[in-house]
Amino acid sequence: MKVALGCDHGGFDVISNVVKYLETKGIDCDYVGTFSNDSCDYPDFAKLVCEKVASNEADYGILICGTGIGMSIVANKIKGIRCAHVNDAFSAEFTRRHNDTNVIALGARIATASEIVNYVDIFLNTEFEGGRHANRVNKITEIENKYFK
Ligand code: RB5
After folding, report:
1. pTM to 2 decimals?
2. Cα(93) to centroid(ligand 1), Å
């Protein structure tokens, strides 16, 4: 499995915990930045990560900013991305089971580093259920195809 990861300054102190954890699990991590605590713009890093997922260069994307909200808004503007804003374990599990999301956006000012690592772990280890949920995801794709060029 290959995972692309990115954050802004709001997530910078947390994301190395995620990368280190995933690497201990043998997951190939492609970290796109940011590379310091200096203030930066979350759209730049969300875009880099999501382009890798949308082009199948990465299987999943992990985004961390202060709240996770800005990153999730950017991610869902990119065709082929279904991003969930997640700050609890239940959502981390059910967004994979029901929404087949390929990107998760987390808030480093909401959850602790160990909670964020746990949510990412749940997200990456949960399968999509398909069935009636596949019909619903297909409807999302139909809407995306109608409104996204
Ligand atoms: C940066 O201050 C903050 O706005 C950003 O990390 C994120 O929370 C945006 O949604």
Report:
1. 0.97
2. 24
